[in-house]
């Protein structure tokens, strides 16, 4: 997990590790079902998150607050 920038002090100092673990578990669930994962986009009024293929065995995730 590479963090390029963050701005405000958050209450949960483990939030990046938690997000990483959630994504890893989701990918594991997809592989157990023999489903291929391509990309994902999640948006609400507070943030937008994008996950997409970066290389053949790597994904990239971008999270933006106040999109």
Write up this protein.
With 67 residues, the chain is of the alpha+beta class. The protein has one helix spanning 15-32, and strands at residues 39-43, 47-55, 58-65. The protein has a three-stranded antiparallel sheet with strand order 1-2-3, with no helix packed on it. It comes from Hymenochirus curtipes. This is Putative ras-related gtp-binding protein a.
Name some characteristics of this structure.
globular, alpha+beta, Beta-Lactamase, 33% strand, Putative ras-related gtp-binding protein a, 67 residues, three-stranded antiparallel beta sheet, single chain
The assigned structural class equals alpha+beta
Uncertain residue ranges: none
CATH architectural category: 2-Layer Sandwich
Mean pLDDT: 83
The CATH class designation is Alpha Beta
Task: Please state the overall shape, judged from the principal axes of the Cα atoms.
Answer: globular
Helical amount:
25-40%
Tally of discrete structural domains? 1
Round the Cα radius of gyration to an integer and report it. Answer: 13 Å
What is the terminal-to-terminal distance? 22 Å
CATH fold title: Beta-Lactamase
Count of alpha and pi helical runs? 1
| Sheet of most strands | 3 strands, antiparallel
Strand order of the largest sheet: 1-2-3
> How would you spell out the order of helices and strands?
HEEE
* Proportion of residues in β-strands: 25-35%
- Give me the count of strands: 3
Please state the oligomeric state of the protein chains shown: single chain
Protein name: Putative ras-related gtp-binding protein a
């Amino acid at each position: 997990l590479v963090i390029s920038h963050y701005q405000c002090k958050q209450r949960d100092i483990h939030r990046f590790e938690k997000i990483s673990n959630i994504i890893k578990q989701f990918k594991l669930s997809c592989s157990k079902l023999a489903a291929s994962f391509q990309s994902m986009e999640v948006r609400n009024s507070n943030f937008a998150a994008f996950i997409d293929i970066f290389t053949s065995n790597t994904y990239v995730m971008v999270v933006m607050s106040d999109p």
